[in-house]
Amino acid sequence: MGERARVWEPGAVDDLLAPFSFPCALGVAGTGGTLLTAGDGARVHPLASVSKPIAALGALIAVDRSLLDLEAPVGLEETRGALAGGADAEVPEGATIRHLLAHTAGFAFDTGALLAAPGSRRIYSNTGFEVLGRALEQATGTDLETWLEDEVCGPLGLRDLEASGSPAASFRASVQDLLLIGREMLAPTLVDPALWREATSVQFPGLPGVLPGYGRQKHNDWGLGLEIRDGKSPHWTGERSGPASFGHFGQSGSFLLLDPDRGLALAFLGDEPFGPSHVEHWPGLIDAVLARHDAGEPGA
After folding, report:
1. pLDDT at 81 > cutoff 90
2. What Pfam families has UniProt attached to this entry (predicted)?
3. What is the mean pLDDT of the segment spanning 60-83?
C-alpha cells in the first residue's frame, strides 16, 4: 500500500474535525474520485453563498451553448424582475453578465441600490446574482431550478442538490454532491476548457473590495462566480493553498475549495452558521489536509 493510500485511509482525518464543537462533514476528492469523507457526507445542509458557484456553472453552460453572452448588457426587465418592488429599479449603465458574475456590476449587497460604476469596484452582491438568475432564465427559456437539474445535476449524477429559491444563497446539498461539482470544476466536461480557464482567471484585476468575514482586501480577486485565492490575507483557505486556488464559502458555515495545482477539491458543511470558530479553524483544517496530501505524493 502506497503512502498516498495510507494518508487517505478511512478515519485518517477525523481528528481534523475535532476543533469544531458542532456536527460537520469534510470531503476531499481528486479528479478520479472521492478520496475521503469525514462526518456524514450524505447529509444535506444549506449552502448559503456556496449556491453562487453552482449558479455560475449553470450560466457558463448557457454561455458555452451561445444562449447567453458574457458581454450582453444587463437589462431592465431582469433587473426589475429580480428585485422586490423592482418597478423603480435602476440598471447600472454599461453593466454586463460578466460584471454580474464578477461582483463588479455596482449593485449593493442585497438591495437594488447602485454604489459604483460597473467595473470600478468589487462589491460582493447577492443582488447581482438574483439579476443573473433572471437573465439566465430569459436566455434559456427555462426556470433556473429546471435548468440546473437538467444541465448540472443530471450529467454530474448529483443526488441531493436542491436548486430552488435564490441563486445567491438558497441552495442545499451534501458534501458528496459538492465533491462531484468540485471534480467537474477541476476537469470540466460541461463547458469548453477555454471558457473554464477564463472563469477561473481574475476578472477586472486590481480592484479592492471587502471579502465577507475577512475584511478589506487590496486586490479582491474574483473570476466568474468564483473567488480566487491569489495573495489575499487573512484568508479562509490557510497558508498552503496556492494562488490559483478558487472556490467559495457561505454564511451557513459551508465551503467548496478547488486547488488545481494539486488536483484536489475540498468541501465542508456543518450545523453552525459561519462565525468565529470557522474563521479560527478553517485555515488550519485546510492546511492540514493539504499537508497530508503533499506528504503522500512520493507513494502515489
Report:
1. no
2. Beta-lactamase
3. 89
97, 132 in Cβ contact below 8 A? yes
| CA 213-113-206 angle, 5° bins | 55
- What is the average pLDDT across 60-70? 98
Could you give phi then psi for residue 69, rounded to 5 degrees? -115, 125
Q: Are the CB atoms for 106 and 114 separated by under 8 Å?
A: yes
296 or 221, which is more confident? Answer: 221
For the stretch 238-267, pLDDT in tens is 999 999 999 999 999 999 999 999 999 999
Q: Is residue 123 helix, strand or coil?
A: coil
Q: What is the CA radius of gyration of the chain?
A: 19
How high is the pLDDT of residue 300? 31
The residue ranking higher by pLDDT, 91 or 33, is 33
**If you average pLDDT over residues 33-56, what whole number do you get?**
96
- CA dist., res. 295 & res. 3, Å (int): 8
From residue 2, alpha-carbon distances to 6, 85, 250, 295, 299 in Å are 7, 60, 36, 11, 5
DSSP 74: P
Q: Is 241 helix (H, G, I), strand (E, B) or coil?
A: coil
The grid cell for 56 is: 455560475
Question: All 3 cell numbers of residue 268?
Answer: 465542508
Residue whose grid cell is 458574457:
70
What residues contact residue 294 under an 8 Å CB cut-off, 6+ apart?
240, 262
Contact at 8 Å (CB) between 49 and 106? no
Which residues have a Cβ under 8 Å from the Cβ of 121 and sit 6 or more positions away? 104, 106, 115, 207, 208, 209
